[in-house]
Amino acid sequence: MYAGDDVSSIVVDVGTHTTRLGYAGEDQPQHISSSHVGVIVEEGDRNGELVTDESRIDYERKHFEVEPIVNSDGFITDFDKFQTYLENKLTNNFQLDLTESPLLFTEPNMHNKEHRLKLTEILFEKCNVPCLFLGKNAVLSAFASGKSTCLVLDSGHNSTYAAPVFEGYILNGSTLRYRIGGSYVSNKLHEYLKSKGIPVNPGYAFNKVVDGEDIKVTPKSTEGFTDSYRDYHIHKIIKFFKQECALVSDISITDKKLENIKPYEYELPDGKKFEIGGERCLYPEVFFAGVDIINQELEKAGSDAQMEDDDDHLKGFIGVQHAITESINQTDLDIRKELYSNILATGGNCMTQGFISRLQKELPEIAPQNLRVKVSSSHSGSVTEYCASSFTGGSILGSLGSFQQMWFSKQEYEENGAIMVERKCP
Ligand SMILES: Nc1ncnc2c1ncn2[C@@H]1O[C@H](COP(=O)(O)OP(=O)(O)OP(=O)(O)O)[C@@H](O)[C@H]1O
Ligand SMILES: [Mg+2]
Question: What CDD domains does the database record attribute to this sequence (predicted)?
Fold first, then answer.
């Protein structure tokens, strides 16, 4: 079976931070939610129940664990939970049955054959989807901006990719991935608050009574609330704080003293007010300077709050501008000119104030002098456009008449097995 005009295809874009779902052919995802599920523990009959709706996960609830639906690399770890997650999302938000819906899945840029085969098997065998397609994030982001050849810089929550796309295909050998994204800045800001003795209290941990000008906050018992539930809520608070205060400086912080950066005043949900100074620029600076340079700056400033590179994930990362040139340098000589003039910055982390303009300033300084460099991003600067470019590309692709012959059908699966996904969805 192939999808036709009468069948609504669904685009499923699961990031490590956010899941975006919607009909192919629509500009924006109809449903956007956190990529987490909740599991009720210790509650009689409902013990073990999986909660997939974000508003229900946010609801104040004891004995409730919250866990991500994909691992930090963007791959599904528990396919049973994922199946429930997907079925609930499609039933509750689209009144759709998986057995009737062609599904176009976005997938992480790094090719993972084992994961693709497993996902294919689950979708056909357990969810009984009629047909599916898997498309790499970078390729779909390129389509969203009307390009089939470009260099995609996708800086999301847990990863930053520099991925060359040529004539609609990702160049795997030249794609670079670093395990760093918006979560890094969030974690650093959280550590900073801890080091200053500023506690981040989730909403369920206090009572707030507003009496005229006065706001009275009293602590509440947190007994029975799990650690994962607490971390999930704290992360949301830090995320709002970060999105408001974090700033990429227009010049390297080695040229600008930390104390010259304008402080920002912020109020936490429990009414606690504080100011953040140079750190609002220091942590996002990692995307342009890498960890080593930032540590040198911290040392000079007499701070002992070093940024630890305790994981392999930052090895070799000296900034997104270098990731782009390094990735392009690994492509064929004759396509480099086109890539340099078609750089697309996408992913939520690129929305940090000052990020795009700093990239536009730094990249031409290190790119070959004879080549024109053009960095473009979302036109309106809206969150949806930045974060949902893969969704939008999938939506465009899934609604093209010429694409309808490209779906991987259940019949083809039954005749050839899951391995055929490697050929049908290159
Ligand atoms: N205005 C903003 N300023 C700074 N950061 C932002 C802003 N808006 C979103 N972000 C950050 O972008 C990240 C989410 O981006 P995105 O939705 O692209 O990630 P994802 O696709 O779920 O993750 P990944 O691609 O790593 O799997 C989060 O860390 C979020 O805090
Ligand atoms: Mg992403």
Answer: ASKHA_NBD_Arp4_ACTL6-like
Q: Is 177 touching ligand 1 by the criterion CB < 6 Å?
A: no
Summarised one tens digit per residue, pLDDT across range 283-307 is 999 999 987 776 676 676 666 555 5
- 132-186 confidence digits (pLDDT tens): 999 999 999 999 999 999 999 999 999 999 999 999 999 999 999 998 999 999 9
Pick from 210-224, 232-246, 267-281: least confident = 210-224
* Ligand 1 mutation pick, 387, 391, 392, max ligand atoms within 8 A of CB: 387
Q: How many CB atoms lie within 10 A of CB 238?
A: 20
Task: Note the Cα 65 to chain centre separation in Å.
Answer: 22
Say yes or no: CB of residue 284 within 6 Å of ligand 1.
no
Neighbour-count burial of 4, counting CB atoms closer than 10 A to its CB (0-12 exposed, 13-18 middle, 19+ buried):
exposed
Q: Is any atom of ligand 1 closer than 6 Å to the C-beta of 17?
A: yes
Q: Is 109 in the pocket of ligand 1 (CB under 6 A)?
A: no
Please report which ligand is nearest the Cα atom of 189.
Answer: 1
Helix axes 320-329 and 355-366, enclosed angle (nearest 10): 50
pLDDT at 1 over 50: no
- The residues placing their C-beta within 5 Å of ligand 2, an ion, are 15, 156
* 348 C-alpha to ligand 1 centroid (Å): 3
Quote the ligand 2 centre to 411 CA distance (angstroms): 31
Of 212 and 100, which is predicted with more confidence? 100
**Domains of the chain and any CATH numbers:** 10-145+383-424 (3.30.420.40), 182-310 (3.90.640.10)
